[in-house]
Amino acid sequence: MTDPQLVLAECVQQALAAAFGADFSDADPLIRPSQFADYQANVAMSLGKRLRRAPREVAQEIADRLTEISPPGKTEAGFPGTVEVSGPGFLNITLDDSWIAGRATEMLADPHTGVAVTDEPQTVVIDYSAPNAAKEMHVGHLRTTIVGDALARVHEHIGNKVVRQNHLGDWGTPFGMLIEHLLDIGEEAAVAQLEAGGSNEYYQAARSKFDSDPEFNRRARARVVTLQAEEPETMRLWHIFMNATVSYFNKVYTRLGITLTDEDIAGESMYNPMLAQVCDELQERGIAVISDGALCIFPPGFTGREDQPLPFMIRKSDGGYGYATTDMATIRYRVQDLKADRIIYVIGATQALHMSMLYASARMAGWLPDHVRAEHVQIGSVLGSDGKMFKTRSGKSIKLVELLDEADERAAAVIADREYDDATRAEIAHAVGMGAVKYADLSVSHDSEYVFDFDRMLALTGNTGPYLQYATARIRSIFRRGGVDPAQATGPIVLGHPAERALALRLLGFGSAVAEMAEESVPHRLAAFLFDTASAFTAFYENCPVLRDDVEETVRASRLALCALTLRVLETGLDLLGVPVPERM
Ligand code: ARG
Fold it and tell me: What is the reaction catalyzed (predicted)?
């Protein structure tokens, strides 16, 4: 355990037990960063009430005991800092430099860099990306893709078993007209259009014939029937359509360094054969009932207008299945077949009601047992500068590959003054462009809306991808210039300057930031931690020369070790977020 906040929490809990008895050891010590010391513990205020004593007195008693406590994992005995009672009963805690330096040196020697790897791996199923084949893959899907991929990376990193599920919208009535349109324009032309990301134009062309041409309309409807029956020739055409579409999705994934592969595709079509059985079973068991001809589940606690119970409809009155039916099948499959301990749905915030009704319905059915955690990581909308859903300047929707092209071009402009050959320049521009787009999605809380703004996300200062990439590349250049391999910079770390101390103290929080991101599905907290780390490094680098001739040998070794630890934390952290780091920048 390296995070000072966790170490201090444990020390204070021990002190509480020593002072007031074991009953009090589970009180939250309320450790917070402090203006006047490294941390403050606010527990005496709430405990004063419980003990009916003055908080200041309680605080003094904790302080007296605290100085006798040895923190976990520390060999030498004694509390590694000073404690002061202040104000109405705050405990101000300042850690010893030697303790901070010792933990930082240990962290550098730890192959996991202070990240706890679990010895009880959970199976974590993550549903993310999930674009629709019949419609365009839009910026909203980009965000669920980027956030979901970061969550997949972090769970793998901490030792969990991750099962990625790309729940493609690849089935349903629109595919009748999509397949007929494919026959009309010819397989080759259709494939070329779809592979280039033209699904929207394709869909619109099919749709307008469907609406205006009775003969096409009849064919499309007939095609839905043969598709539902999985008639071989129809399936062949469906596969042609899907393969071309997926090949476009893969282009976007590759460009962005998304870890999804074809193996992870588990689209709506996969569940099609299960739907009848899902409905039959739920109906037989009385979980679902017929209401106005439709088969519905009424999970408790969901009401609509005039307090009417809200239906979760799994079969329409015309016998058709819908989104809810498929999602009931996904839950059952993920629990029973994939053996999920935790299921994370990374999906638009607008689907919040659907998701909570789904979980409630699945709990009723016994398909989502209590020990399986299901959560909806709600993704907020990405807006244009006009505050509406992001499209393009002309108001037309934009192809994602074109958006990524624009990111590359703009990133190239940002680094235009650098003296690199064309190939290196293109490589850097690509990393910066993709890093900027990805980091913009990851640095704000996943459920908040934000305005898509190239200028802001590409800025070299502030909480942006390029700033963190630049900070990382700059540390690499220190090692290049010094002719030192970062792996050889092992310290020991000794702290002299306040900027060294602040950086080291910050670095110790890395393991907690990673754990928190995995536990609470909050990539933006890790992003904020990395940004704070890079800022602390900037202050350190401005104040503490590393390679200058007049720097004493032990100081140089310590500062190189701090650089190496910062580099490892930034590289690992950015990799967990899926943000690439160019070698130089
Ligand atoms: N294809 C859906 C959409 O674009 C998202 C599917 C999410 N996953 C799920 N199991 N419902 O809105």
Answer: tRNA(Arg) + L-arginine + ATP = L-arginyl-tRNA(Arg) + AMP + diphosphate
**Atom in ligand 1 nearest the alpha carbon of residue 140:** 4
CA 257: distance to chain centroid? Answer: 14
Q: What mean pLDDT, rounded, does the chain reach?
A: 95
* Per-residue model confidence as pLDDT tens digits over 175-207: 999 999 999 999 999 999 999 999 989 999 999
- Of 166, 203, 351, 356, the residue with max ligand 1 atoms within 8 A of its CB, to mutate for a pocket test, comes to 351
Q: Report pTM.
A: 0.95
Q: Where is pLDDT greater, at 418 or 501?
A: 501
CA of 380 to the centre of ligand 1 (A): 14
On whether ipTM exceeds 0.90, the answer is yes
- Which ligand 1 atom sits nearest the alpha carbon of residue 327? 10
Give the pLDDT confidence of 12-46 residue by residue, as tens digits.
Answer: 999 999 999 988 888 899 999 999 999 999 999 98
Residues with CB under 6 A from ligand 1: 127, 130, 132, 167, 169, 327, 330, 345, 347-348
Neighbour-count burial of 274, counting CB atoms closer than 10 A to its CB (0-12 exposed, 13-18 middle, 19+ buried): middle
Give the distance (Å) from ligand 1 centre to CA of residue 347.
6
pLDDT reported for residue 57 = 94
* Residue 496: Cβ-neighbour burial (10 angstroms; 0-12, 13-18, 19+): middle
Atom 2 in ligand 1: residue holding the nearest Cα? 130
Say whether pLDDT at 431 is over 80. Answer: yes
Distance 335 CA to ligand 1 centre (A): 18
Going by CA atoms, what residue is nearest to atom 9 of ligand 1? 167
CA distance linking residue 495 with residue 561, whole number of Å: 11
Q: Smallest Cα–Cα separation from 115: which of 397, 480, 532, 507?
A: 507
pLDDT at residue number 395: 59
Q: What local confidence, expressed as pLDDT, does residue 302 receive?
A: 97
Q: Ligand 1, closest atom to CA 330?
A: 10
The residue among 580, 576, 435 whose CA lies nearest residue 516 is 576
**In terms of Cα–Cα distance, which of 569, 561, 562 is closest to 514?**
569
d(CA 130, ligand 1 centre) in Å: 5
- pLDDT exceeds 90 at position 352: yes
Ligand 1, residues 127, 165, 167, 275: which to mutate, most atoms within 8 A of Cβ? 167
